[in-house]
Structures
1.
Amino acid sequence: MAGPLLLWGLGVGYVISGDYYGWNFGLTATGYWGFLIALAVMAILYATMVAAIAEMSAAIPHAGGPYAFARMALGQVGGYLCGVGVVIEYVIAPAAVATAIGAYVNVLVPAIPAVASAIAVYVVFTAVHLWGVGSSLRLELVFTGIATVMLVVFYIVGLPNITLENLNEVGGGEVLPNGLGGLWAALPLAAWFFLALEGLPMAAEEARNPERDIPRALMSSFVTLAALAGLTLTGAAGLGGATSVGEADAPLPTAVQNGLGENHWLVGAISSVGLAGLLASFHGIVLSYSRQIFALSRTGYLPLFLSHVNRRHTPTWSLIVPGLVGIGLVVLGSALPGSAIPILVTMSVFGAAISYIMMMVSAIVLRRRRPDLRRPYRMPGGEVTVWVALILAAVLLPAGVKDHPVAMLFGLLVFAAFAAYYFLYSRHRLVTRSIDEELRVIERAESELRG
């Protein structure tokens, strides 16, 4: 059973790959100073949201996580739509992670095409999970620790070499070179520094004392990620060549090459060790999407074949189907004229923002309708905290429209297809009816997956 340290490793491990790629496209949207503001706005969103989730996870310590919160507060429809948002987020995010892994491998071995490495990661990790080698929280902690130490080394070596001139490169020193529109477009990319942290409550069944340890892990993970985000942004932009950094699939090696030289030892080190963070996030998110899809299938919300398990107690089709979708996204992305990463990030954040809105509405509803609910942890600020998170999540939801309208449209169509499936088909074929029944099904599913 996991205590706060192992859960911290899982929470940070979900997200830490975001320091190594993806966020940097926000530099081209609004420059360093504007992106710093966007990062501060998203830090407020996640600080308030994490506080609300910590309260709900202590009161409802079930492996359903976001789905369980919304199901209890908003009923079957609300629970399903929140779960769909999580599925969209967690299925698309690994495609971005895999693309970045390919880019980092390509830095180390230019002869290996990035798309080949990305596909190989999907094949290998899907096979590993199908074989039944489950998530080891201790191994996740090791990978997270290695990736964090590498970032600290990057700061120690890089920060003394940053200059104000380099920070001002994009936008000529203007705070908002592209106005409020550029700031708004940068929000999804700033959110990438924190995306997936909200999935930590899905590890409630692994926690030694979920009522106490999940809130602690959420808070400590957020503080760690916020500190890493500010230092990574400043270090990478301040080394010089912010324009090239803002267009790179592997921004940290690019920043080192710009500021310290192409042959500097840190280029190879950060490319090699950075893979630990990328693989930790990929591994953790694949595990999470397979569990979320499995749970939704077991209760009848999604097709029942997705909850089939093999003899090693692993959800076969809940791993294979999203894996094939991810490979398809990687291949399609490789055919685009520019980088696919900001498009994938935008789509993933869109799904996440849906679940954020649903969870914050759930927090308000539970406080008003279920004052009797035992709350071992109470968020500071009460409902005001939740309203701040809800408003910022509503601002984040359509933020990708400005720079990536097609990605937003695709995300909306996918969400609409899931909603149509529920209203036209699955709501008439649900295996369970009450929240207690569904949570018991999820708990049994977790036990089955653990063998």
Note: The first helix runs from residue 4 to 15.
2.
Amino acid sequence: MSIGAVRHWRTGRRRSPEAGHSLAERTTYCPVCANGPLDGEAYAYLLGLYLGDGHISKSRRGVYFLSIYCANEYPTLMKMCADAMGAVFPVSSFQVARPGCVEIKSASKHWPCVFPQHGPGMKHSRRIVLAGWQEDVVTRHPGALVRGLIHSDGCRFTNPVRRRVAGEWKHYTYPRYMFSNTSADIIAILGHALDRLGIAWRLRWRTHTHPNHQPTGTLSVARRESVTRLDALVGPKR
């Protein structure tokens, strides 16, 4: 018995033989090529994770693997990622330990259907444009997309400030969100989602001196009311 078969039996997601499903019937879950149902909120969250820290690879047997990378210190986010994969497609996921992180993987021939942004090379080296149906999902669930993007390539931290006021130095701190990425298209997708939510943001590009490093865009949210709104939408990374 293969490792995949054992995994399916262990997770309880192996299709029973008495169900009599043909191969064509077994793939009716794809919302793109088979008109299957789609959990919009789970998909928008998974899309954010994929755009930030994910990729799709193809096995020798023609099966595609969706991989999302999560730092070891965030076990709750690992579970949220696996839950989102299972909500989008009725397939199991598994974890592969990597240096400093965990690769969360799930196999299906249809991952490229729901993530048409898949392609050769790094994401910053090609255009990343949402398909029309993806735009519809994101329009309905902008908060879930923002949550996925922040959980992947974003952070919340306390920003220290030292400022001279009336001749005296004042020290204070304030919370701030930041999202960094080398793809201008991905940053624009996040910016449009924040606009839909009425959350103010700023963008700054940093050009590295090393010739092999790509310019990095950093989107920040610092206004008090916007940070409070993001706190309710994103939640802590843990």
Note: The radius of gyration is 20 Å.
3.
Amino acid sequence: MDVFEAIETRRAVKHYDPEFVMPEADLERLTELAQLSPSSFNIQNWRFVLVRDPELKKAIRAAAWDQAQVEEAAVTIALCCDIKSWSKDPARYWAKAPKAAADVLVPMIPTFYDGNDQLQRDEAIRSGGIAAQTIMLAARGLGYDSCPMIGFDPVKVAELINLPEHHVITMLITVGKALKPAHPRGGLIPKDEAVIHDRFPA
């Protein structure tokens, strides 16, 4: 499947085959592709919690308004971000870059983030959103369906997955084999409302 088809056919699927078990090779490939997502300063602040344990999925379902897809999908991914990743040995993010580039970029990281809690959180949400789309398109390319979710109690889910300090949950993403297709698309707003050339009208 090419990237255009993956974008056009990706839908938020709510009903999955609960008997389907994703091959380990596919899950490995999905996470490899997720790690290719871009992140500011290459700090790679996303963390992918792959939830497959049936009891844990059931508990997360209860914390997610009893939405069945959490339990029935092959894997429910808690897409988290480490807000403090910028401060954790930042040289490692540029270890394979030319020394001249690393010498410029590595010192810039703490200068950019230190003391700016709002920016650190915003960066986590941005990185998580980018990684989420990578996961969903990669899943589609591998022949799976997915659903991004914000309908859950983040405090309870954080407790269930032992979320570390200075981490946030960006969203949940279910991935699996669709039991039935998604509903027809709800509709798109007019293109001239969504696409602005150069600047908004005065």
Note: The chain has a mean pLDDT of 96.
